[in-house]
Amino acid sequence: MRTLDDLLAEGVSGRRVLVRADLNVPLNDGTGERITDDGRIRASLPTLRRLADAGARVVVAAHLGRPKGEPDPRYSLAPVAVRLGELLGMRVPLAGDLVGPSARSTVDGLADGGVALLENVRFDARETSKDAAARGELAGELAALVGESGVFVSDGFGVVHRKQASVFDVARVLPGYAGGLVLAELEVLRRLTGDPARPYVVVLGGSKVSDKLAVIESLLPTVDRLLVGGGMCFTFMAAEGLGVGGSLLEADMIDTCKGLLAAAGGKIQLPVDVVIADDFSAEANIQSVLAAQIREGWKGLDIGPITAQRYGAVLAEAATVFWNGPMGVFELAPFAEGTRTLARSIVDSKAYSVVGGGDSAAAVRALGLPEDRFSHISTGGGASLEFLEGKPLPGIEVLEATG
Known about the structure:
Layout: H1 4-10, E1 16-20, H2 39-53, E2 57-61, H3 78-88, H4 101-108, E3 115-117, H5 132-146, E4 151-154, E5 176-178, H6 180-193, E6 200-204, H7 209-219, E7 225-228, H8 233-239, H9 254-264, E8 268-269, E9 273-277, E10 286-290, E11 299-303, H10 305-316, E12 320-324, H11 337-348, E13 352-355, H12 358-366, E14 376-377, H13 381-388, H14 394-402
Parallel strand pairs: 1-2, 1-4, 2-3, 4-5, 6-7, 6-12, 7-8, 12-13, 13-14
Antiparallel strand pairs: 9-10, 9-11
């Protein structure tokens, strides 16, 4: 697989380089104009800066949200272009379209060392089409923007598990290279799946067991302890015969959870107490109760303090930690303490610690925790999980096949 270093050694001055980045940042509800977490933009900077400093004319492709294959002003990359420009210390023009007249004009206007951003790739239905011919057509139009001497750099790790035009198909029509971010993410995940230092502790949260089932099944044979929190813990608790009140419950997954608990040989650890509320709001009445004492109609929205302490004790002895998914509804202050305490326990441990992207990474920043105290914070929650499940990542496979 060719890398960014290989490309820079070849020379990029004056050449157009198409970079697929992951700039899918959360925006403030309502206006959609304020970025609430610019972590993914910051993660893209090293590759973009190296290319720009080497004199490349950098054309960035990215998506935002889930528009339905047509332009939607709510998902415009305009605020991303502004923030990217602020962080790079240069103006980053945003094309008014993806591969149309505005994109061509914007790219033609780039000077050596300049960076431009194309409008949301998902404004074009061909990006996510199941039809390979349609995706290939769009990939060809993206390639035409950078011309005969153009190349492609894949640096959006958060999308490499998607077989999409700007991720997969474009690497079949342009010489493809792995960017620095993608290489760093792969190095970390290979460390976790190779021979991790032990004890190896995995912390899983989030809403649904069904979302994490494959990774649980994949990790159980290799981990020493699996700590469960978030909404998914209540389906496990129901599998143990406990009442969960009005908590989130996947009734059709209870038998599956029983099987996982039986197969785990004691590796899976569940909350012994939870924070419950009579409403899903910051103003609700709340109580901390033992797991067996959840009141009818009340919802479990966080792990309790005893559980947080017990999980912390396990983490203090860990040599390797992988964390994916918050312990509770951290966006609401009354239900943030479980996630905060757990994250602090990871920070205070001596373990090699990996935060598996998504809501976990957002929680680290939202709760004001020191990012540099974690060994690695991934930009790709879904891609990280699929790698750990042993699934192929199309965006990586195509680079390996064509490199």
